Backbone:
């Protein structure tokens, strides 16, 4: 494609996705209309195709000719780009109309036959004018880029052209200049009260009158001559907001249906509409400006420190009306007043931008220097090239304006009531610090829907997993009925211009009270990725979907509401079974409890790191230095002076000489691991006398044997399987706290066998002698170092942990099958141990 795809919104969304979302939204809306019109005829309520093909005369009349029939359905894409979803919506509506048109001839109803004849007009087929009607009456789109909106209009026109039988059938593009509009879908007034509008208009009028009086007095306070016949701007009676909107709507409606009104001067009508809009925006933009002001938002101007050759201190000032205008606000309450007056759109269907709301220096400067690469350029090289470019005063000026354009709009997104779900709290800490356009568009789509409206949207998979999206999940689970959720990997390039490692979600919901369950399916692992050829079947085949209950989501992730990526009903059943144990984050009386922490930051604390050992220095453990049950997987790269490290850990606390964590044997778990690796949960015990980097979650509050119990569970195939359905790469501390882990104590018969087996794997060097003795061994000499012996102990632990969770053999076999990279002999050994231990009750 020759256009800039990101800038022009021309990313290609596969037809299988657009069609599915239209089916889930548009077709459901039509079925809802049938239910409302025929509430007692339940045989029409289940399947739209059946309802349409069996529709009687009155139902067909209602759908085709009534004011609240099909022509009233409003379908919106608020980030329409090249119009892929609008074209798909057109096709879906056309299919529905076509079935009803077939019923006309079967019913032989004069009223319907007359309606069809008027629709066909001079065309041999009704398809051309039917498409025109759908485009004009049902489709709405908005995009920030004017070029993208023009592409959307062109695609609709090309779809229309395909229905022409001859060249004579071709007519100009339907007048949808006021259906497909340009503006910022996220910034603008969703509703306008008459009182607020009149207050704003009164203030503006007072200012204008004062200005006119000053101009009338002229130089030396002498009255100036008034042009005869020129009316004052105040001589016309003041109009209400309702009147202004009505006049605008009337002109737009005439513009849309100009062919039947005998209007010849279309340009004059268009100019009149644009003038009315400009006049309205002169009052609406100040109302939006007041909203910003009431939220306490300031303009933060980025400055340049010439002496230092870098950005200087930010200057704050009051926002001006020009600052608001620069955002290209789109006032929904005015532009689509008729739709918003009904409560909102019937459906929103979209694939919005997925960008973080913050400056992107590489992207901005690419237009000035093609040598700048967004993805394949080091920070050092970019900073060097940036310095050269900003030496040009013209580029520097644009750079500062660009940098200054983000803070005040970001502040609005964080503070505006319409974006209240962009953040939430988890364990008392605020989430959602990262503003992302997809999150903003999802909430805006919810706001733009009428009650009972349908939404279908394509967004990153983080919507159902990331902590920063918890607020949106609260919105979806409390205020809507989720009707489908699919999580997919782009490994097979379903989106051809997007990186293959990206994961995205296909989400549909209805703006009604929540449901108890929703269908879902996830194919995130690259080895299970859905191909283009199988996508349609995957989306439509209920046998590939799983029913997930909101109650289960809340039990599995009470703090984050993250949705686990179940691939089958069995996965959900096993998760329910594992919840017999409390989550790690729960404080439980009478047993051990875990607190996680981190130590040294690799960037902020780098000044403490040395590359050579020396007296008084302790090794700094990094993630790659451990593996499961091993703390010697790689040699250290850095060392830290013990006194400096101790001071860093204590921070502002006084050093009373007490024993700190680094002076004990302690639990450590890698933070970074991929769900597509051989194993994801990687944990071990670090020997005493070592510092740890931020690569780990460090366990606190455990005595030695309890650490061994936790370690055995964390390194088990069962718990790894559980976690892999929650996260794909970064194992956030909150997700660790949401793992159901048995809090075994020494009073339980299963405690000592697990402790002893784990100790034999860990205690293989003298530094673990004390731990070995605490676990009931003689010392590190009882540790097992040969590969066969260690493999046998690992198999025993995997089997014992599986029995702790009460799994059946078929369930454990299913779990083993989810680790394709684990050697089959390892899985066979674990299953054999599972069988061996089962008859003995798993206590010896």
Residues:
């Amino acid at each position: 494609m020759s256009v800039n795809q990101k800038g022009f919104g021309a990313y290609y969304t596969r037809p299988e996705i657009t069609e599915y979302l239209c089916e889930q939204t548009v077709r459901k809306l039509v079925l809802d209309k049938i239910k409302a019109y025929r509430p007692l005829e339940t045989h029409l309520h289940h399947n739209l195709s059946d309802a349409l093909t069996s529709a009687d005369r009155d139902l067909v009349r209602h759908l085709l000719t009534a004011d609240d029939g099909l022509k009233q359905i409003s379908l919106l894409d608020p980030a329409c780009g090249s119009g892929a979803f609008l074209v798909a919506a057109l096709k879906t509506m056309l299919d529905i109309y076509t079935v009803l048109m077939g019923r006309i001839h079967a019913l032989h109803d004069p009223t319907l036959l007359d309606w069809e004849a008027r629709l066909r007009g001079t065309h041999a087929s009704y398809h051309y004018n039917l498409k025109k009607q759908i485009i004009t009456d049902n489709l709405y789109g908005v995009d920030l880029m004017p070029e993208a909106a023009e592409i959307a209009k062109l695609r609709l026109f090309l779809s229309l052209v395909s229905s022409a039988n001859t060249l004579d059938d071709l007519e100009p593009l339907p007048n949808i200049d006021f259906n497909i509009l340009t503006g910022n879908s996220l910034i603008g007034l969703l509703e306008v009260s008459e009182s607020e509008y009149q207050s704003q208009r009164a203030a503006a009028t007072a200012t204008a009158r004062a200005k006119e009086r000053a101009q009338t007095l002229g130089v030396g306070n002498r009255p100036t001559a008034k042009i005869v016949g020129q009316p004052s701007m105040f001589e016309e009676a003041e109009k209400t907001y309702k009147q202004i909107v009505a006049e605008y709507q009337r002109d737009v409606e005439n513009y849309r249906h100009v062919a039947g009104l005998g209007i010849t001067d279309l340009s004059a009508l268009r100019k009149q509409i644009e003038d009315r809009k400009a006049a309205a925006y002169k009052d609406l933009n100040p109302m939006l400006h007041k909203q910003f002001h009431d939220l306490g938002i300031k303009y933060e101007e980025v400055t340049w420190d010439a002496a230092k050759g870098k950005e200087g201190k930010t200057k704050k000032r009051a926002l001006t009306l020009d600052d608001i205008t620069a955002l290209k606000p789109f006032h929904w309450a005015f532009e689509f007043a008729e739709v918003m007056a009904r409560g909102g759109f019937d459906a929103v269907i979209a694939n919005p931008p997925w960008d973080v709301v913050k400056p992107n220096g590489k992207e901005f400067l690419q237009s000035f220097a093609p040598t700048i690469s967004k993805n394949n350029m080091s920070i050092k090289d970019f900073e060097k090239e940036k310095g050269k470019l900003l030496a040009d005063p013209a580029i520097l000026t644009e750079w500062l304006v660009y940098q200054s354009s983000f803070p005040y709009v970001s502040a609005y997104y964080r503070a505006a009531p319409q974006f209240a779900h962009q953040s939430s709290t988890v364990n008392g800490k605020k989430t959602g610090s990262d503003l992302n356009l997809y999150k903003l568009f999802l909430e805006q789509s919810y706001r733009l829907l009428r009650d009972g409206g349908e939404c279908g949207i394509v967004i990153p998979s983080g919507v159902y997993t990331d902590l920063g999206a918890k607020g949106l999940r609260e919105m979806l689970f409390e205020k809507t009925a989720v009707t489908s959720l699919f999580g997919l990997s782009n490994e097979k390039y379903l989106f051809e211009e997007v990186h293959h490692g990206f994961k995205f979600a296909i989400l549909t919901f209805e703006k009604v009270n929540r449901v108890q369950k929703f269908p879902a399916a996830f194919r995130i692992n690259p080895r299970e990725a859905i191909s283009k050829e199988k996508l349609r079947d995957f989306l439509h085949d209920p046998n590939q979907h799983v029913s997930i209950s909101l109650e289960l989501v809340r039990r599995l992730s009470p703090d984050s509401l993250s949705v686990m990526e179940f691939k089958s009903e069995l996965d959900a059943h096993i998760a329910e079974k594992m919840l017999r144990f409390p989550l790690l984050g729960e404080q439980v009386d009478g047993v051990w409890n875990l607190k996680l922490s981190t130590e040294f930051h690799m960037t902020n604390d780098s000044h403490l790191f040395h590359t050579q050992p020396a007296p008084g220095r302790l090794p700094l453990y990094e993630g790659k230095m451990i593996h499961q049950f091993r703390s010697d997987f790689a040699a250290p790269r850095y060392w830290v002076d013990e006194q400096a490290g101790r001071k860093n850990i204590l921070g502002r606390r006084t050093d009373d000489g007490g024993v700190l964590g680094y002076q004990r044997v302690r639990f450590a778990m890698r933070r970074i691991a991929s769900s597509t690796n051989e194993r994801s949960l990687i944990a071990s015990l670090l020997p005493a006398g070592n510092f740890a980097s931020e690569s780990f979650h460090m366990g606190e509050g455990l005595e030695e044997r309890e650490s061994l119990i936790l370690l055995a569970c964390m390194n088990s195939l069962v718990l790894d399987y559980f976690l892999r359905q929650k996260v794909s790469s970064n194992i956030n501390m909150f997700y660790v706290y949401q793992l159901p882990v048995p809090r075994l104590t020494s009073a339980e018969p299963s405690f000592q066998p697990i402790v002893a087996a784990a100790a034999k794997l860990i205690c293989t060097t003298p530094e673990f002698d004390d731990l070995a003795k605490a676990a009931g061994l003689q010392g590190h000499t009882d540790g097992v170092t040969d590969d066969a012996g260690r493999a046998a102990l690992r198999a025993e632990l995997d089997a014992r942990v599986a029995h702790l969770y009460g799994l059946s053999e078929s369930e454990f076999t299913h779990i083993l099958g989810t680790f394709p990279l684990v050697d089959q002999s390892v899985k066979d050994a674990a299953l054999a141990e599972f069988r061996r231990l089962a008859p003995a009750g798993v206590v010896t």
